[in-house]
Design brief:
The chain is an alpha+beta fold. The chain has helices at 12-24, 72-84; strands spanning 5-8, 29-36, 39-45, 49-54, 64-68, 88-89, 94-95, 104-109, 115-120. The protein has one domain: 2,3-Dihydroxybiphenyl 1,2-Dioxygenase, domain 1. The strands form two sheets. Strands 5, 6, 7, 8 and 9 form a five-stranded mixed sheet that branches. Strands 1-4-3-2 form a four-stranded mixed sheet, with helices on one face. Helix 1 packs antiparallel against helix 2 (72-84). The protein is globular, with a radius of gyration of 14 Å. InterPro entries: Glyas_Bleomycin-R_OHBP_Dase, Glyas_Fos-R_dOase_dom, VOC_core.
């Protein structure tokens, strides 16, 4: 398991707003925002920052991150908020039984093309 994850974004303020809006539906909020060595950093989490975005040398590849949700409704709310905040659809909310029968997820692409998911594994 990882302790935290972070990546560079092309538009820091826009990304901070996007993730702030989308992740709030999962109970994840912006906990810290600072500048160090001329690079901006924003850390999101529940009790401590575990998801970081920042400025710096831009990476040329996209990545996939899945955030845990506690219910199907929370996945649905994440998806709606992410789309409203400027995300692009990459797979609307629904069961993905190819993973397992209770896998309920939704996928969006952020402004940098990263595939961001909210997933609930509970049977509802």
């Amino acid at each position: 398991m990882f302790d935290h994850v972070g990546f560079v974004v092309s538009d820091f303020e826009a990304a901070k707003s996007f993730y702030g809006t989308a992740l709030a539906r999962l109970g994840i909020t912006l906990l810290t925002d600072f500048t160090y060595n001329e690079n901006h950093h924003a850390g999101f989490g529940v009790d401590r920052p575990v998801f970081w975005i920042g400025t710096g040398k831009t990476v040329q590849t996209s990545l996939h991150l899945a955030f845990a949700a506690t219910s199907h409704a929370q996945v649905d709310a994440f998806y709606a908020a992410a789309i409203a905040a400027g995300g692009r659809d990459n797979g609307g909310p629904g069961i993905r039984d190819l993973y397992h029968p209770n896998y309920y997820g939704a996928f969006i692409l952020d402004a940098d093309g990263n595939n961001i998911e909210a997933v609930c594994h509970a049977h509802e």
